[in-house]
Every structure is written in structure tokens, then in C-alpha cells.
Amino acid sequence: MAGTFITFEGIDGSGKSTQMRLLSGFLRMNACDVVLTREPGGTPLGLRLRAVLLDAQVVPDLTLLFDIGVAESTGRTTRRSTARNKRDRLDTEDSEFHARVREAYLSIAAAEPGRVKVIDTSGAVEETHERVKEIVVPFLQSRGHCLAGARS
Ligand SMILES: Nc1ncnc2c1ncn2[C@@H]1O[C@H](COP(=O)(O)OP(=O)(O)O)[C@@H](O)[C@H]1O
Ligand SMILES: [Mg+2]
């Protein structure tokens, strides 16, 4: 069976890492094979993945755009930095930059509404996880993947 390629997009602090972890756990619990990668190129697997994707001229099958206000995302990453006692370069970039990136993401989503699904991530972690499953589970089922009896 061919694989399905799902990407998580969104500004820093929008919850991508948190939700990837939760979704991959859920899918594995439902007997789905999941390969997690960060940005292609970040790891040896990522490099191979990128090569495969470029060969296939790839576009992701499904993209989840995690949308959140810049002030809120900055609040989250600031807490994260403090917790780790270090700062990412991206964490310190100005909010205007994040606002422009957010707008760019939203225009891509508007241009490709079939492939790119916008998810409001301003709520609690579990709330966002439910929204992610509501989109991903039927999508995987429609492609004949795992989750035959699973409920989102
Ligand atoms: N729904 C949420 N509510 C509050 N804090 C959150 C939520 N989702 C994630 N966080 C916290 O916000 C920070 C950024 O989340 P993370 O998943 O690392 O985002 P990203 O990978 O998009 O930068 C982390 O410290 C995480 O624990
Ligand atoms: Mg992350």
C-alpha cells in the first residue's frame, strides 16, 4: 500500500511538535505505521525522504496548518525557552516576522483548501488533538489505511 504524507505547518509555538507526538501515538495505538520526521534534510532519514519526495515531485497528501495568534504563540515559546533555560533563534525573532509568516501560511491554505486544513490551536492541547484526529482519521480511512474501526 502506498504511504500517505502528512505535514504539520505553522509558526513557532503553534503546537506542531506536541501534536505530532500525540497523533503518532494515537496512530500507533491503532496499528498504523508512522514515520516521524522533522523538516526534510534534518536527519539521514529526512534526506532520503526528501530525495523520494523530489523524485515523486511531491506535494504532501495532507497539510495541517496550525493557526494561532502571534502573541499567544510567543507566550508559549517564551515559557518553553525559560523552561529549557535557553532560547532558540526563532523564539527571539520579532512578532512582525511571525505575523507575516502566519499570513503567508493562511494564503496558501486559502489557495489550496482541499489539501491544506487550518486548525485553530489556541485551545487546550487535548482540544487541538481532537481537531487533528477529526481531520486525519477520516482522511486515512478514505485512503484505505489503518483505523478501520477507529473513531476520531
Ligand atoms: N494547546 C496548548 N496550550 C498551551 N501550551 C501549549 C499548547 N500546545 C503546545 N503548548 C506548549 O507550547 C510550547 C510550543 O509548543 P510546540 O509543540 O513545541 O510548538 P511548535 O513545535 O509548533 O513550535 C511548548 O512548550 C508546548 O508544551
Ligand atoms: Mg516544534
Explain the layout of strands and helices:
Blueprint: E1 6-10, H1 16-29, H2 44-55, E2 62-67, H3 70-84, H4 95-111, E3 116-120, H5 125-142
Helix pairs in contact: 1-5
The structure holds adenosine-5'-diphosphate and magnesium ion.
Magnesium ion (MG) binds at residues 16-17.
Please characterize this protein's 3D structure.
The protein has 152 residues and is mainly alpha-helical. The protein has one domain (6-142): Rossmann fold (3-Layer(aba) Sandwich), CATH 3.40.50.300. Helices cover 50% and strands 11% of the residues. It is built from five helices and three strands. It has helices spanning 16-29, 44-55, 70-84, 95-111, 125-142; strands at 6-10, 62-67, 116-120. Strands 1-2-3 form a three-stranded parallel beta sheet, with helices on both faces. Helix 1 (16-29) packs across helix 5 (125-142). The longest helix is centred in the last third of the chain and has 18 residues, at 125-142. It is globular. The two termini are 22 Å apart. The structure holds adenosine-5'-diphosphate and magnesium ion.
